[in-house]
Design a protein that fits this description.
Helix content is about 40%, strand content about 20%. The chain has helices spanning about 10-30, 35-40, 45-55, 125-140, 180-185, 200-210, 270, 275-280, 290-300, 305-330, 340-355, 375-390, 410, and strands at about 30-35, 60-65, 80, 85-95, 95-105, 110-115, 150-155, 160, 165-170, 175, 195, 220-225, 225-235, 235-240, 330-335, 365-370. Helix 6 packs across helix 12 and helix 8 runs antiparallel to helix 10. Mean pLDDT is about 90; it is low at about 400-413.
Length: about 425
């Protein structure tokens, strides 16, 4: 539990922090008995009871009678985050598809819709139009709008953390998009809209709920069409001065290499990304998700060209990853997106490169593991980001903001 309260204090700040700590605990860790909450917070039993009652009064938690399991005395009630108590709208924009979902407390996906795009990458207007249409159907469900506390968006490309501005999305060809502002205008819901890079949000979700739970130093390496990293260092996201850290796909690995969507050439993603896989397999590099699925199906059956196409990514992936491991000293590298799907075939070659190139100063090698949340990681990370204001201040989380158009801070809390 992160915010340990000062027992006995009556200040509003302490009360808010206590409520925040209790709600965050049951949201992230699942149901907890009152006894557990007493032990975790150091607060006394009656204070915990009052705080739980306050959260229950807001509809954010519910209590169930505990099971004594043979222990003497009265069983301690179990406190659950109420997945219907507060909802966020989570949006995950990838190069080839879009997912929109309503997500309840506890990060329970209530309902989701997905749309795949084929052919050329979609225009910004097409994507915004689809977000609008798909969101409308989800928000029309009874009770959803009243309990909505935020919108979280996972976007392709570097996203300025201050205001959710996308300067440039190389693999979509978009430039200068005030994404948080555009989506806030479009949906007009009166709740904060938070936009972050898909890899940063994937790292957040894996750290909180997936393969990186309990690991405070990790690199999440995500391949959509391009490649990005979300870095958690000392338990905190490492995002840089403006939010652009982790654009590892644009590290130059061959100055004379293939042109990259960013305008440079020989970037890492040109040799380990989706287009490299398709090119290796003799497919159209811009063929998209259906071509990728075809290559993967062939590789799974052992078809030599497809297997070789995947394995050809392993060496440059391992070489770049070794550099990241030497830079950030993670305990774990989580492979996300396409890399997670390819992991069984990639791992032997990746491990060989890591063994050669990671500076070995102790006997504990970095672990490389596939994502546990799969393609949902950025979506769930977006949901977590959108829940953050409510988790930080559970009683004010339902306050509607007058406008989310005037100023990035409001649109991107
Ligand atoms: Zn590039």
């Amino acid at each position: 539990m992160r915010a340990i309260a000062v027992p006995g204090s009556n200040s509003e700040t302490t009360r808010r922090d206590n409520l925040s700590a209790l709600l965050r605990e049951v949201h992230l860790a699942g149901p907890r008995s009152r006894s557990d909450l007493v032990a975790l917070t150091g607060l006394n039993r009656s204070t915990v009871g009052d705080l739980v009652a306050e959260l229950a009064g807001q509809g954010l938690v519910r209590e169930q009678r505990g099971d004594s399991l043979g222990a003497p005395g009265r069983p301690s009630p179990t406190v659950h985050a109420d997945s219907d108590g507060a909802l966020v709208l989570a949006v995950s924009i990838a190069v080839h598809w879009l997912t929109v979902a309503t997500v309840g407390l506890g990060c329970v996906v209530v309902e989701r819709v997905r749309r795949d795009w084929s052919g050329e990458p979609p225009s910004l207007d097409r994507v915004l139009g689809d977000i609008h249409e798909m969101s409308r159907s989800l928000l029309a469900r009874p009770g959803v709008h009243e309990r909505l506390v935020g919108v979280g968006v996972a976007a392709v490309g570097p996203v300025r953390s201050r205001d959710g501005y996308v300067h440039f999305a190389p693999n979509l060809g978009w430039t200068a998009v005030p994404m948080a502002e555009r989506i806030a205008d479009l949906l007009d819901l009166g709740v904060p809209v938070m936009v972050r890079n898909q890899s940063d949000l994937g790292a957040r979700a894996e750290h909180l709920r997936g393969a990186g739970v309990g690991v405070d130093d990790l690199v999440y390496l995500y391949c959509d069409v391009g490649v990005g990293a979300g870095i958690v260092s000392g338990g905190r996201p490492l995002v840089g001065a403006r939010g652009y850290a982790g654009e590892v796909g644009h590290m130059t690995v061959d100055p004379e290499g293939s042109p990259c969507g960013c305008g440079s050439r020989g970037c890492w993603e040109t040799v380990v990304g989706e287009r490299a896989l398709l090119r290796n397999a003799g497919h159209d590099p811009d063929g998209g998700v259906h071509e990728v699925d075809a290559v993967l199906r062939s590789a799974e059956t052992g078809e030599p060209t497809a297997v070789a196409a995947v394995e050809a990514l392993a060496r440059p992936l391992g070489i770049g990853m070794a550099g990241l491991v030497n830079l950030f000293d993670p305990r774990v590298v989580v492979l996300g997106g396409l890399f997670a799907r390819l992991a069984p075939l990639l791992m032997p070659g990746v491990e060989t490169e890591l063994a050669q190139r990671v500076l070995s100063v102790d006997r504990e090698p970095v672990r490389v593991i596939p994502s546990r949340l799969g393609e949902d990681a950025p979506l769930l990370g977006a949901a977590e980001r959108a829940f953050e204001p409510l988790l930080a201040d559970p009683l004010r989380g339902f306050a509607r903001v007058a406008t989310v158009r005037d100023g990035g801070a409001m649109a991107n809390v």
